[in-house]
Amino acid sequence: MSDSVRVRFAPSPTGLLHIGGLRTALYNYLFAKHHNGTFVLRIEDTDQSRYVEGAEEDIVDSLQWSGLDFDEGPGKDGEFGPYRQSERQDLYQEYAEQLIEDGHAYYAFDTTEELNDMRERLEKSGNPSPKYDAVTRMSMQNSLTLPQEEVEQRLEDGEEYVVRLKVPRRETIRFEDEIRGFVSFESKGLDDQVLLKSDGMPTYHLANVVDDHLMEISHVIRGEEWLSSTPKHMLLYKYLGWEAPRMAHLPLIMSPSGGKLSKRKAETEGIPINAKDYREQRYEPDALVNFLAYLGWSPGDDTEIHSLEELVELFTLDRVSKSGAVFNHKKLLWYNENYLREKPAEELYPRVQAIAKEHGVNPEKEYLLNIIELMKDRVSKVEDFITQGKFFFEDPEEYEEKALKKWKDGSGEIVSAYLEKISDLDEDAFTVDNLKAAVNELTDKMDVGFGKVAMPLRVAVTGQGFGPDLFPAIELLGKETTVERIKKALDKLA
RNA sequence: GCCGCGUUCGUCUAGGGGUUUAGGACGCUGCCCUUUCACGGCAGUAGCACGGGUUCGAAUCCCGUACGCGGUACCA
Predict the structure, then answer these.
(1) Residue partners of A221: CB distance under 8 A and separation at least 6
(2) Rounded to an integer, what distance in angstroms lies between the CA atom of residue A223 and that of residue A207?
(3) Taking Cα atoms as reference points, which of A236, A195, A230 lies closest to residue A214?
(4) Nearest residue to B6 (CA, C1')?
């Protein structure tokens, strides 16, 4: 039982779930499922001032959209709940008291001003990184310096206090990270971390350790920004008499301009930052997942495309890279195109239909299915079926500038000759073969290349210089529409 | 500043002492296919941060430097 894999994704509901968080969730999920383990969602809402309404819902929705179903979490109770830290407050209190009793933590009464003063004073006297530590705590207001009766009196009077971790003066803290190997820190570089805040809530550090232990988490897989606070966590495990879970610190997702990919940077660089943005911008979730998996990990062979199930099969922590990975939006788009191409038109249909509706058109299913089939090889996003295939639903009002370049001097003559030819075709003879044959006859007769006919024809019928295979598109459009459009183009362009 | 982590093509990465003229993918360029647009195929482009060791031999091991990133809160 103790060797079963249990991992958790533990976001704070301080805003929408961002792409880095989603990747952390993904790696946790992959690891859990690879080992037939359990994937837990825990909401770390201990900072009431940063709590954002609706954030938890967004996290759950985003995970679901991505296909990362959690086994335990809010609304999905296992035997380790509750799964919101705000609902576990008593627990933390209890352990904080235990730490104090055992001499590993203490009460501190210093006000914010006093703390600032202390830091300022130290800085002025040449200490570049002032800390509340083994030395400085002796000149502060805490249960280590104050007489016991006074401490008790203050507590009784309801004076505000925090509980701080009593970090040893000199100790080397060493632990093994699954991704980085052995890492070691000196305790003298550590702050006497606040464990319990004056509002009674635990800080991340206490809550995290307590919950990971109580929830029997076997592996902590989280972002690298946590690496430097891990020694504090190791101290806590030791003082509480618990075995620490295995640690794995993931490389950060970086912005193309350098630095951790932040909301601000992502925005200026045109990268969607929140999972919700990807949903709204209609990225394929399986493509996003595939892309994210490869951002900092690789299976070690030359493969690139894998479903979530395959990723589960392939994923191991030892193949996660150590250095930050720059977000490459073009590669994401490539993945998206790939997944779109592989999906059957039937599967895409409901979504494309919904988008069509948003654009004010309501095509028949058979017609839309044909369009999807025709355009699958050249769209990047689902909505491209409608936006780039606009001409399937309405006559081109104007002709794209790029397209017009393909309308040359003799084009009018050629296109009207073509028009004449296909006007003779019966409604049911309006097929790809016949339409192509008509072009061939023309090229022979007028002694011009195929492109000289097809290009301007494309412009006339679609208004675009690019697009799906022209003749099937024309067949789909039907004789009446095609003839009309060609006439109109001849009017406007010739 | 201090502490920690990292550094292979522009980007994501493979590689873990000889198998390497450093492999793949995205991007970009060219060609082929298609007498249209794509897809696809092929080819090209471009990299071991630097300096010292260790070794017969180093992208691979060690040390240093540089650079990057993270942390340094009663935020997570």
Answers:
(1) A7, A24, A27, A28, A31, A248, A250, A317
(2) 17
(3) A236
(4) A323
Cβ < 7 Å from strand B, A residues 132-161: 132, 160
- Residue of least CA–C1' distance to B71: A228
Nucleotides of B under 7 A from a protein CB: 1-8, 10-15, 23-27, 35-39, 68-76
Tell me the pLDDT of chain A (494 aa) as tens digits: 447 999 999 999 999 999 999 999 999 999 999 999 999 999 999 999 999 999 999 999 999 999 999 999 999 998 998 999 999 999 999 999 999 999 999 999 999 999 999 998 888 888 878 899 999 999 999 999 999 999 999 999 999 999 999 999 999 999 999 999 999 999 999 999 999 999 999 999 999 999 999 999 999 999 999 999 999 999 999 999 999 999 999 999 999 998 899 999 998 888 999 999 999 999 999 999 999 999 999 999 999 999 999 999 999 999 999 999 999 999 999 999 999 999 999 999 999 999 999 999 999 999 999 999 999 999 999 999 999 998 999 888 888 777 777 787 788 888 888 998 888 888 888 888 888 888 888 888 887 888 888 888 998 999 888 889 999 999 999 988 999 999 898 888 77
Instruction: State which residue has its Cα closest to the C1' atom of B24.
Output: A302
Rounded, the Å distance between the CA of A4 and C1' of B16 is 30
DSSP-derived letter for residue A380 is S
User: Within 7 Å: CB of A324 and strand B?
Assistant: yes
- Would you call A263 a catalytic residue per the annotation? yes
Å: A69 CA to B40 C1': 36
What is the Cα–Cα distance from A78 to A214, expressed in whole angstroms? 12
Question: Which tokens belong to A470?
Answer: 């022209």
Task: For residue A31, say whether its CB is under 7 Å from any atom of strand B.
Answer: no
- Rounded Cα–Cα distance for residues A222 and A46 (Å): 18
Rounded CA gap, A427 and A424, in Å?
A: 9
Q: Which residue has the tokens 């979490």?
A: A73
Q: What's the complex ipTM? A: 0.96
Residue A143 in 3-state DSSP? Answer: coil
pTM above 0.90, yes or no: yes
